[in-house]
User: What shape does this take?
Amino acid sequence: MTRKQVTFSALLILIAILAFLPVVVKKDSTINLALLVLLYVSLASSWNILGGYSGQINLGHAAFFGAGTLVTRSLWLAGWNLFPSLLAGGLVAVALALLIGIPAFRLRGIYFAIGTLALAQILYITVGNTLPMISSLPAQSLATYELVPRYYLFLGLTILTTGTAYFLVNSRLGLGIMAIREEEDAAESLGVSALQHKLLALSVSAFFAGLTGGAFAYYHVGYYPQLPFAPEWTFDSMMMAYIGGAGTIIGPIIGAVFFVIVREFLVLKLAELHLIVFGVLFILVVLFLPGGLVGVWGTLQKALARRSRPKEIKLTPTRES
Amino acid sequence: MLKIEEIDAYYGDLQALWGISMQVNEGELVALVGPNGAGKTTTLRVITGLLKPASGDIHFYGHHLDKVAAHKIVELGISQVPEGGKIFTAMSVLENLELGAFVASARKVKDQSLQWVYEIFPRLEERKNQRAGTLSGGERQMLAIGRALMSKPRLLLLDEPSFGLAPLLVEQIFAMITEINRQGVTVLLVEQNVRAALELAHRAYVIENGRIVGQGTGDALLSFESVRSAYLA
Amino acid sequence: MLEPLVQNLAFGLLVGALYGLAAVGLSLVFGVTKFLNVAHGELLMFGGYASFWIFTLLGIDPFLTLASTIVFLLVIGLVLYKLLFARMVKLTESVKIQNTLLVGFGLSLILQNLALRLWTADTRSITTFYSGSVFTLLGVRFPIVRVASLVIALVTLLALDMFLRRTYTGKALRATVENWEAATLMGIDIQRVYLLSFVLGAALAGVAGCLVSVGYSIDPVMGMNWTLKGLIVMVLGGLGSITGTFVGGLVLGVTESATGFFLSLTYREVVGLVLFVLILVFRPQGLFGTKEG
Assistant: This one.
């Protein structure tokens, strides 16, 4: 089996496990934890589409996440069905992305990053000031609240996000996007419209962040509307993508799982420590391990492969001494 | 004094220089000429340490230049006027010159050096408090050369000093370079303006596509058939 | 009535001086090394805590211990540079810019949570016997502490300006900003220049932090807010001019106050960011173009 087939089968098995999880495990806390992991995978994957593949560091990802929550929550509580609400959330996020992206992509280098950060902060502060009241589900929704369907929503969303990322990356568009990361001017001279590709990556990234936000709004019973706009969501997603392996499909998945596990583990001991740990890991990855955990795994595989080959040679008789 | 032996140099994976060998003796004015993109600037960058060679040796009065950090090259007595001069436009003419004497040994004799430079380039003294960015093209080149002289170099490297200058100015600059050489500074002149460089130089090397394809005295090369047809037609 | 407005603007001016000071540190590092240290705000925060703890534990006035805060931040700056940023100097331009941004961000996270760990999330402030004192000029009240802070900020920037214009090392720094290759050809050790500017940037953050702890308040999560203020002012005031940056800080302070006065507190919080985005979009060349060109 090729490495790709191995990975693919592993993922299928994983999906199967996750699909049957609520059937086998009846504990709410476990399902909630799995749901959280799926949420992060989705966020990290969507960030990765722009940040990891096109190299444009978007520090305002939370704006799309938040926009999705706002729109979906409002529509759903107003009586809309769930799926149209979710879709609306995703589309509004895309609209926001285009609004931001068209001027922002004129900025080279770090100005794009700090520009998107500033924009997200503007939204964060504005929402916090205009909607300070907690958003709670009305009584009858509370009564009929079920965790399991929400879990499956997140599972489906995560599969959709990861799958789309995979197809996008392996398409001609994906090649264009990655060419921009490597050398934007060279790509332009070859006829790759940098702006169009960047906008595409940004839109897809924002769409899924928005959908995830919508799912978040559907999941949470009560939360402050400002919360999903908080910069932490962006930073956590970014760290997960990098630590797992930016620019790969599996990277964000590994990063998200790793993140949640370590956080759960450390929260028992010392609060905030998990963020210090991740900060350090993040720096280590940026400085020394650009491929993240995926890269480390790849290097390990190669090292093991090299070790196993000489044994075969010894079995064949040779004339040389 | 300067001996370059079999230098190979790369920009990333792209090889730029193949087995470059050259020599500059004390007091000489040596020219390195060739077309655009031949590797002239690259060769200078290797000498001044801005680009480390993949193989080969550079000796300067017994020092292995390829082992010396870029900013220490000046202390050894080599000063370069980079392509376009690269003066500090936001700083005054005087400040630019002062920076030329940055290394400790030069700083001590800064005032004398300043006088010397003003003698060669009186225009600089006139404009000493002006922002360097306000100078004309020719004045900038003069400033760049003056700045390089402030470190009292034993070897002066000039990267295309005539570039972008009107012919009259080119004559002036070259006259000044000859004068500087006459006053005892050894000069390695890199130039696209082959005729002018060869007329000036004691000896010259011709470089094409990263390889030395010819060498000899300035006059000999000037009369050499292939050089005439390739560059002087 | 004009009086509340003028009072408001006065306060804006006083805080603007600190914005300017914070921005100069950020701008110095960015100009020389092209690293945008997004952990600058956290360094400022640490400066504030250094002053706070020296005052709380030893009882010495923060204005007197400013020197020790500076030293403290110089050391931190040195350690952080050698540990994290020094190794990124040799990278190609675009990778260097991206990686330093990411490392800076990781660093800010670590420092912020370290502070949370060590000192809890409580807001702190230094209160001295003269903290409440005010002097009144033309009906406008000026808190003594904040005016002293303005003066100190000015003195610090003046000292920095002298250093950059009168000393050889300062000129070497300015030369590196323009063209590091040419600077190398003069015999300037770029590594040392980078280190020096980073360390100076940290020291400036420390001074700002000390002044903030006395005149205002500090808490572990204030870093990002101050980094953003620094960025806004940097863009407003323009790179390469201490005076310009300082004035930019004053402009931001006054704009915020005026916005809060005429519109609402919400708008006051976002006006700086909005200005920032507008300038980035409509005049990025005008303020930064010369260096990139």
Observations:
- Chain B has a mean pLDDT of 87.
- Strands of chain B lie at 2-11, 14-24, 29-33, 55-60, 63-64, 78-81, 155-159, 186-191, 203-208, 211-217.
- The CA atoms of residues 49 and 72 of chain B lie 9 Å apart.
- Chain B is about 40% helix and 25% strand.
